[in-house]
Amino acid sequence: MENLNFFNFLFRSPRIIFGRGKISILGEQARILYGKKKNKKLNAFLVTGKSSLKKSGNLNRILNNLDKANVPVFIYDEIEGEPTTLIINRGKELAIENKTDVVIGIGGGSVIDSAKGISGLVTNGGIVEDYHAGKRSFDKPGLPFIVAPTTSGTGSEVSNNAVIIDPARAIKQSIRGDKMMAHIVILDPELVLSCPKKYTAFSGADALVQSIEAFVSKSSNYLSDIFAIESIKLLLPSLPKVVNDLFNLELREKMMLGSFLDGLAFATSKLGAVHGFAHPLGVKHNINHGLVCGLLLPYVMEYNVELEHVQKKYAYIADIAVQSEIIDEVDLKIKDCPDSINDKAVWIIELIKKIFEYCEIPLHLKDIGITEEDIDDIVKDTKGSSLNNNPRDTNKESLKQILLNAL
What we know:
This protein has helices spanning 26-34, 52-55, 58-68, 85-97, 109-124, 128-132, 197-216, 222-242, 249-268, 273-285, 289-304, 308-324, 326-329, 341-358, 372-380, 385-388, 396-406, and strands spanning 15-18, 44-49, 73-79, 102-107, 145-149, 161-166, 171-176, 184-187. By secondary structure, it is an alpha/beta fold. A hairpin with a 4-residue loop joins strand 6 (161-166) and strand 7 (171-176).
């Protein structure tokens, strides 16, 4: 059944600053956010990854900018891989010890989710596990909070949740609340130039998956469709080009804008079965989130394409692909787009496979170490709002069949 609540939606968004070189106003924005004059010291807690920001030279640039604005910084660079309860709980304690006024998250989705969690925990108390268990909620505003992504993919900068792994219980679960959202988002495509090819591909695949899943979600609506369509228009032709032209600032700009728009799309609607699968695969098998999302998208699309209204939306994406002329610009070895809605819907699935293959994303679960013996265990832990909002209803048998098809 098509979504009957198409004209009902809730829209949330931080203050957005987009443009080349905009990271140079970070210190100024921190002061505006907190409301302190320049002659008053403002303590910042900078959450980032272990090395990428430093290697790119952007860390020194950022620290110099904050120093000029009289913003002393404590650097918390312990984020490696996906965020965990241990990392975020420790970050909260350090932020309190350092009398933090403003939390700044600069990095990929894991860094942003970590910063989001730290900001919220400082003011609301407790540990991540309390929120996982539903014993606490984010009732108070978090510390003033600024983010600047260094990848184009997760959309975390505009969402109200953080996805966190609890290693002790082997679960990956969201903590969420509108008071967790960033106050200011700085989207500077120059920060993404140093992202390596592999992670450019993985994060870009995640962005494209999110825009497509938001577009066909049971909770899709008038506004989320606008964001999803514009995101797809930017991402679909840019992704296969940027992986072989990493320092092309115009392509990086389009990828960052597309990722931002897909974040608005899924934050205003929901995601689908791809993201339902991604959580247990990420926790149990330590597989990169964007990689597994890109791998599984075509197989979930093949499952969803049985629905007539989904066929129409997939056919619309096919038209976007043809109009973008990406097929002529990149040698994807695919036949011309057919005319009927059903055939277009099938064709776009094949094109997406070709695009991901071109970006060196594996097409089969066996290529990333998953065996048939793993599938029942993955299906057992595939659940949540993403699964519930998949356009076509699922059950244990259908979920298993999707994974078998992807094997």
